[in-house]
Amino acid sequence: MSDQIRRVGPLKAVGGTPGLVAAVLLAEYMFLALLAAVAGLMIGGLTATHQPRFGPMGLNNLRPPCSGVVQAA
Fold first, then answer.
1. Helices (H), ranges, the chain
2. Other Cβ atoms closer than 10 A to 70
3. What digits encode the pLDDT tens for the residues 27-51?
4. How far, in Å, CA of 26 to CA of 42, rounded?
C-alpha cells in the first residue's frame, strides 16, 4: 500500500486529479495483467508441446484406456 502512496503523491503534486490517478493505476495494472497472461500462455504452450503424450503428434496416438468390451458385473 505504501508503494501506491509513493506513486500517487507525485501525480497529485503536479495537479493530477483523482480520475487521472485512477486511470494511470488502472493502465499499469492492465499492462501487468496482459504481460502475465502472455507469459502464462507461452509457458503453457511450451510445456504442452514438450510433453510426449500431448505434443503436436502425440494426440493422434491416444487410445481409450480399455479397448475391450465392458461388461456389467
1. 2-13, 18-49
2. 5
3. 999 999 999 999 999 998 888 777 7
4. 24
* Distance (Å) of CA 71 to CA 31, 66, 68: 56, 12, 9
Question: Reduced to 3 states, what is the DSSP secondary structure of residue 63?
Answer: coil
Q: Please, what is the angle between helix 2-13 and helix 18-49, to 10°?
A: 130
C-alpha cell at 45: 504452450
Q: For residue 19, give the C-alpha cell.
A: 480520475
- Please say if the pLDDT value at position 58 is more than 70: no
* Grid cell of 63 as nine digits: 487410445
The cell 488502472 sits on which residue? 26
Compute the Cα dihedral for 10, 14, 15, 17 and give only its sign.
Answer: negative
Is the whole-model pTM more than 0.70? no
Residue type, position 39, single letter: A
